[in-house]
Write the structure tokens for this entry.
Amino acid sequence: MFGSIGGTEIIVLVVIGLLVFGPRRLPELGRSIGKTLIELRRAAGDMRTAIEQEADLGEVRRTTQDIKATIQREAGRVFSDLEAEARLVTAARSGASAQPASANPSPQGSVSAPEAAPAAKAPPDPGPETHAASAEAAKGEPGGKHDA
């Protein structure tokens, strides 16, 4: 408890305390020293806990800052990608509206873009019978097209 202080040294200290403070005040002094030591130990424990918590908070703060930097970096990248796409769309729209379709040179030479790639036509309407079967399948009734 006292480190390198042995039994003989403690006895010598008690005798000196008796001579200096007297037998009446020595027990009071012992109690007050004991209380002070207990309070110092408690304060040291609280300080150690506070330092450990602060160290943990420092690590959490560093991790939070790293995550924030990563999010900002990724958001900037996504934003720049979106800006590039918006510029492409804007350029395509302004280019399409500024020039008529017949004036656009195609990569195939004299064939215009609508002739080179015919537009996909909508399939013909199959009739009311198919619509009824699709409605039954959507309701979950047996016998519909979408049953597995």
User: Anything to note?
Assistant: The two ends are 80 Å apart (CA to CA). Residues 7-98 form the longest helix (92 residues).
